[in-house]
Design goal:
The protein is of the alpha/beta class. About 55% of the residues are buried. It binds adenosine-5'-triphosphate and magnesium ion. One of its GO terms (molecular function) is propionate-CoA ligase activity.
Length: about 625
């Protein structure tokens, strides 16, 4: 089928389109109505239908593929590789579900999961889904304060934590963070269920509150816990946005719409079916982890690889080695991870024959053309950028190699996915922008299945955050974009990050892209800094592939970057200052923290730094600002 026809049908006849797609999952009771849209922008997909995510991800495959590998959890930190067939996964999930039931966890109760990328995190999520409990996974790298905020918002009945995670060979104890978070939280859960990996021998337990999963598992090893059938629009999980732009929002996902959107996208976008292998390098704490490490691959009967470790340890070829060993067909990672590899010898990319490997998908941040080319040419495989948000749960913009692959245009995440009726809107006039004109990317509701149903416990915040920006009731992505004559979209940065230089509006991303075309640049961050005359001026922070040179060499590099921007975008975009640094501050999800860089550059408080990955990177920015621009 042609992409154009399928897409048109998804917009013009959404009920017919999604009724067909819904056949890909098991319904205990079929939907009464495919789309109920009586209270815009709230919508109910597959109303009256009853289904269960765990049943679709596990039980449904037992007959046809019980002995097939379902999950491989690989840790290059501990050296453990844990393999589970669908039958073994079913056993583990039932035992976990029985443990939850024994602790009084019921349908609709929230369960916060604070764990690294280990198999038990997947069991915990699926066990919640099985009994109709609502999981809220909090990324294991978050500090006590972040965890406490999410606990107070979700008000969980139970917290499930691991004793520790590991990163770069170092044990990161989670339990002290859990204790601190529970002390900070206004509504701490009565119990903490601990999955003890044996990494932290000094771990302490609070009597009566803290329970060991191993002991409970022994008691429930052979339990069979019946699946709880949920109405399609009941909540399946909560997941907080990354918090790049401010206080995280509790994205609420439904059951049926989520399952259907994942089944569709596994087939049409990711091109992975029963018995095939998908490797997503995401953490279970992110939306990608939920959709394409856990639910998506399992719903379609594929094999999912889960990875704990760095992309460069034990060596920079580790990911491709795993792809070769497991016969990975589709891999999913982020531009940030590829930029880490880009600092390494490209020979690592070609060390393993990858006959089964078809596609590398990248998402989460703008994918600049040089990085896309570097990895695509190094691997000899197609690289497909895709754009989405925690809110949407699956790609908004992408190409669909599983259906009908349109040409890759470097720098663009592609074409609208099914059900996304996208427009670019002029921020000021609210009118639709013509191809080539910049504006805000919006979607006309109803949003397709899989997208958030609301902000947890706060419909007003849902409306205010996403639907209050224009006179029409449009979902604002809060991203700045432009479309071209072929209908491809380009993301130019967040609307917060638009720079206004003497009346010209420029996306930070356009300038970053121009900087990144310089062969010596590894990564760049561009911010707009207040200027008396021009309003704002672009300021560049860049890391170089070969490390930071000193003195005159640094000035040469900075000058070259300024010229590069002027050549590509014209004099108006010419950076006022360029700083060559060793590292850029990012969130734990690998996103540039431009707001913090900008605050430092304008001598303001850098704001909430709790999502910051590496404090040294911020110190780097401070030092560079003190030293002064590297331009000569
Ligand atoms: P918060 O909403 O809390 O500030 P966040 O927006 O960083 O955090 P996510 O939902 O993880 O949280 O990130 C989605 C955003 O990431 C998108 O809105 C967009 O700005 C950016 N993004 C994701 N994929 C791409 C892509 N392929 N190209 C460009 N930008 C992307
Ligand atoms: Mg966001």
């Amino acid at each position: 089928m042609r992409y154009e026809d399928a897409y048109r049908r998804s917009i013009d006849e959404p009920e017919a389109f999604w009724a067909d797609e819904a056949r890909a999952i098991h319904w205990h009771r079929p939907p009464r109505k495919i789309l109920e849209y009586t209270n815009p922008p709230f919508r109910r997909w597959f109303a009256g239908g009853e289904t269960n995510l765990c049943h679709n991800a596990v039980d449904r495959h037992l007959d046809a593929r019980g002995d097939q590998l379902a999950l491989a959890a690989i840790s290059t930190e501990t050296g453990v590789r844990a393999h589970y067939t669908y039958r073994e996964l079913h056993r583990e999930v039932n035992a976990f579900a029985a443990a939850l039931v024994s602790l009084g966890v019921d349908r609709g109760d929230r369960v916060v999961v604070y764990m690294p990328n280990i198999a038990e995190a997947v069991f915990a999520m699926l066990a919640c889904a099985r009994i109709g409990a609502v999981h809220s996974v909090v990324f294991g790298g978050f500090a006590a304060h972040n965890l406490a905020l999410r606990i107070d918002d979700a008000k969980p009945k139970l917290l499930i934590a691991a004793d520790a995670g590991m990163r770069a060979g170092k044990v990161i104890a989670y339990k002290p963070l859990v204790d601190e978070a529970l002390a900070l939280a206004a509504s701490p859960p009565p119990h903490v269920l601990i999955v003890d990996r044996g990494l932290d021998p000094s771990m302490t337990r609070v009597a009566g509150r803290d329970l060991d999963y191993a002991a409970l598992k022994k008691r429930h090893a052979n339990a069979d816990v019946p699946v709880v059938w949920l109405e399609s629009n009941e909540p399946s999980y909560l997941l907080y946005t990354s918090g790049t732009t401010g206080k995280p929002k509790g994205v609420q996902r439904d059951v049926g719409g989520h399952a259907v959107a994942l089944a569709t996208s596994m087939r049409t976008v990711f091109d992975v079916g029963p018995g095939q292998v998908m490797f997503s390098t995401s953490d279970v704490g992110w939306a990608v982890g939920h959709s394409y490490n856990v639910y998506g691959p399992l719903i379609v009967g594929a094999t999912s690889l889960l990875y704990e470790g760095l992309p460069i340890q034990p060596d920079p070829g580790i990911w491709w080695q795993l792809c070769a060993e497991y016969g990975v067909r589709t891999m999913f990672s982020s531009p940030t991870a590829i930029r880490v590899l880009k600092k390494q010898d490209p020979a690592w990319l070609a060390r393993h024959a990858l006959p089964e490997f078809r596609w590398l998908f990248l998402a989460g941040e703008p994918l600049d053309e040089p990085t896309a080319r570097w990895i695509s040419e190094g691997l000899g495989k197609p690289v497909i950028d895709n754009y989405w948000q925690t809110e949407t749960g699956w790609p908004v913009l992408c190409l669909q190699p599983g259906l009908d692959l349109k040409p890759v245009k470097f720098g663009s995440p592609g074409l609208p996915n099914f059900g996304y009726d996208l427009r670019v809107i002029d921020e000021v006039s609210g009118e639709e922008a013509a191809p080539g004109e910049k504006g805000v990317l919006v979607a006309r509701p109803p949003l397709p299945p899989g997208c958030l149903t609301t902000v947890w416990g706060d419909d007003a915040r849902f409306l205010q955050s996403y639907f209050s920006h224009f006179k029409e009731l449009w979902y604002s992505s809060l991203d700045w974009a432009v479309s071209d004559a072929d209908g491809y979209y380009f993301i130019l940065g967040r609307t917060d990050d638009v720079i206004n230089v003497a009346g010209h509006r420029l996306g930070t991303r356009e300038i970053e892209e121009a900087v990144a075309t310089h062969p010596s640049v590894a990564e760049a961050a561009v911010i707009g800094v207040h200027d008396e005359i021009k309003g704002q001026v672009p300021v560049v922070f860049a890391t170089l592939k070969a490390g930071t040179p000193e003195g005159a060499a640094r000035a040469d590099a900075a000058n070259a970057l300024r010229e590069r921007v002027a050549e590509r975008l014209g004099a108006v975009a010419k950076p006022a200052r360029v700083y060559v640094v060793n590292a850029l501050p990012k969130t734990r999800s690998g996103k540039l923290l431009r707001r913090s860089i900008q605050a430092l550059a304008e001598a303001r408080d850098p704001g909430d730094l709790s999502t910051l990955d590496d404090p040294n990177a911020l110190a780097e920015i401070r030092a560079a600002l003190d030293r002064g621009s590297d331009l000569s």
